[in-house]
Amino acid sequence: MIYTKLNDLLGIQYPIIQGGMAWVADAKLASAVSNAGGLGLIAAMNMNGQMLKAEIEKAKSLTDKPFGVNIMLMSPFAEEVAKTVIESGVKIVTTGAGNPAKFMEAWINAGIKVIPVVPSVTLAKLAERNGAAAVVAEGGESGGHVGDLTTMTIVPQVCDAVNIPVIAAGGIGDGRGIAAALMLGALGVQVGTRFLVAYECDIHQNYKDRVIKAKDTDTFVTGRRLGHPVRCLKSPFTRDMLTKEYDSTITNEQIEALAAGSLRLAAKEGDTLKGTFMCGQIAALVKKEQSVKEIITEMFTQAEQILQRDMQWVK
What we know:
Blueprint: H1 5-10, E1 16-18, H2 27-35, E2 40-43, H3 49-62, E3 67-72, H4 78-87, E4 92-96, H5 101-109, E5 113-118, H6 121-129, E6 135-138, E7 144-145, H7 151-161, E8 166-169, H8 175-183, E9 188-191, H9 205-213, E10 219-222, E11 230-233, H10 236-245, H11 252-259, H12 262-269, H13 292-309
Parallel strand pairs: 1-9, 2-3, 3-4, 4-5, 5-6, 6-8, 8-9
Antiparallel strand pairs: 7-11, 10-11
Helix pairs in contact: 2-3, 3-4, 8-13
């Protein structure tokens, strides 16, 4: 079995965290991941404090294993949900899309392990100085909000720069990705796209089908003009969005208005015309729907076989 310091830090069987995907990662998915031995996360991006509290209570009823909450700092509810995780007794918080520094003292004083998702060495060092328990070094291959560096480059650089555990994310969808992340120095992985096709994931079937049918070149990045680049599957809507980003006659406010609510349309309504299907570059490796337990077991079995086999390369 693959066992690292991350297992002990988070109290989990496998060193894997499920990505905090807005409109996707709810109590049902998070508890399924935790019950299967990983760390499930509830995504707070689309929730206010009351909604998040209800999801946290639901997760507690579905699992007695550790789980956490992901807080996207660009959310209009960030301040509210930052307090909710303390009041609800959450023990693990991951953050994305910003610097969580102003919340960290209160979280740490409440006994919360804070794990920021970082797109650069600079932010990783800052997170460590502010008391982070670990960091997720995320490459631009991932779905949703992305940075510029690739997983292959950012993970070893962050591992060299900080003394806290590093979790690799971006482009990891099977055991080969896990093995590669560990070889780069990470102590675990964060996986999002692969869990989109889990039976326990309640997104619309159209979303799952699009992921399963995706080819290697079927994702691209929109939103660079707005400063919040997002990786998603190509569609008539996202192609139109990308075209409008290069149209100087269209304002940023107009582009933001067009994008508003498009992820919900994809995840909850399966709208293939107006929805944004956030998805990582590993979608082409995803071939079928599976249970969360099958996904995690399959990935780590393959990773163990690869790491054992690789000894033959040393002579």
